[in-house]
Amino acid sequence: MAEKIPFVTTEKLGEIAKIYPTPFHIYDEKGIRETARLVNKAFAWNKGYKEYFAVKATPNPFLLKILSEEGCGTDCSSYTELLMAAAVGITGSNIMFSSNVTPAEDFQLAKKLNAVINLDDITHIDFLERVAGIPDIISCRYNPGGHFAIANNIMDNPGDAKYGMTREQLTEAYRILKKKDVKHFGMHAFLASNTVTNAYYPELARILFRIAVELKEETGVELEFINLSGGVGVAYRPEQEDNDILVIGDGVRKAFEEVLIPAGMGNVKIFAEMGRYMLASHGALVARAIHEKHIYKDYIGLDACAANLMRPAIYRAYHHITVMGKENAPCDHKYDVTGGLCENNDKFAVDRMLPKIDIGDLLYIHDAGAHGFAMGYNYNGKLRSAEILLKEDGTTQLIRRAETPADYFATFDFTDFFK
Ligand SMILES: *Cc1c(COP(=O)(O)O)cnc(C)c1O
């Protein structure tokens, strides 16, 4: 069971909401640092292990800085994500550039920053050479096709995914890159998203380790790192069992000892690009109940909407909700908890049993720390919220201000309409 307890008390959140108007995203520095340390501990058996935090999950320079203080690099996939990493002093081998459908400017900036470039496709070798030149160190992304299953449970469908190279292309790519004098090689794969099983990384690792051994025989290329990418999930539902990163790290170690060590490849470094696992549970969306409505169902309307947290709308994802101050009240009311978009999928919860909610109540929407704010958008002219950091000493810091109408109209700054 994953206990769903807010990382901030009702009293404290009430004080914070007096300073920063709702809605806002709030992040827990203490929890972020603890998770980063636990991840590094789980893989401490591997010399050279590194977590490259997936910037797309929570693109905020203050948070990237905290993670970099804990020894993490960044995984970037676009020009602006590269700029954000560079802005907090993360460059060179501390950036993994795992992009796809990559524009020339993006490769050029990645090369300029000396980021490690992870090629999504075999045709990107020529493209990269033409637009930026081939670097000394390069990684290739693998897609095994078909279904990816663990113990007969289908986890995901790589055969339908646009990412990576086929097994044959992978061999060919390393042959070509070797001829082009690349000195250092890595491999990457991302086969399943939001996995809530300790078996995903070990299973993926075993597949990639075996291929690494084959590639050495086929091409003479000795991989220096294997990047397990993201996909380690969190228990969004209280009845789910959370992943145990120490068990996961140990599972990868076993595969490493069984496959790579006997092949004389015990120096391979393990990399990861986790986003969700690092931050999801250390961030929440805080909103206030501003309306209630009773028609064919009972609705609670919040001052936040899907523009602040899109996952329920697009994936029908479950996010646990705590009504602050009513943690011990009976959940004897069935509500749809909604935002104000003119879209009927703008519901944070459907038919959810909750305590009786009154106008003005603060609602804490759990596990919004990754792929939360980041997926925000401006539909219906809704503005993105502020992001607040709850620091280790209990004080708060504004780490992104809320958007204003002026931000929304900023792209009309060449006209007089909004002057
Ligand atoms: C999205 C993404 C990640 C992070 O995924 P999580 O599910 O947040 O861990 C890592 N690497 C790549 C290439 C991605 O696209």
Which helices and strands appear, and what pairs or packs with what?
Elements: H1 10-19, E1 24-28, H2 29-42, E2 50-54, H3 61-69, E3 73-76, H4 79-87, E4 95-98, H5 104-112, E5 116-119, H6 124-131, E6 137-141, E7 148-150, E8 153-156, H7 167-179, E9 184-188, H8 200-219, E10 223-227, H9 245-260, E11 269-272, H10 276-279, E12 283-294, E13 298-302, H11 311-315, E14 321-323, E15 333-338, E16 347-354, E17 362-365, E18 386-390, E19 396-400, H12 405-408
Helix pairs in contact: 2-9, 8-9
Explain what the structure shows.
By secondary structure, the protein is α/β, with parallel strands linked by helices. Helices cover 29% and strands 23% of the residues. The chain contains 12 helices and 19 strands. The chain has helices spanning 10-19, 29-42, 61-69, 79-87, 104-112, 124-131, 167-179, 200-219, 245-260, 276-279, 311-315, 405-408, and strands spanning 24-28, 50-54, 73-76, 95-98, 116-119, 137-141, 148-150, 153-156, 184-188, 223-227, 269-272, 283-294, 298-302, 321-323, 333-338, 347-354, 362-365, 386-390, 396-400. Strands 1, 12, 13, 14, 15, 16, 17, 18 and 19 form a 9-stranded mixed sheet that branches. Strands 2-3-4-5-6-9-10-11 form an 8-stranded parallel beta barrel, surrounded by 5 helices. Helix 3 links the parallel strand 2 and strand 3 (73-76). Helix 2 (29-42) packs parallel to helix 9 (245-260) and helix 8 (200-219) packs parallel to helix 9 (245-260). The termini are far apart. The model has no long low-confidence stretch (mean pLDDT 97). The structure holds pyridoxal-5'-phosphate. Pyridoxal-5'-phosphate is lined by residues 54, 56-57, 75, 98, 190, 193-194, 229-232, 273-277, 370.
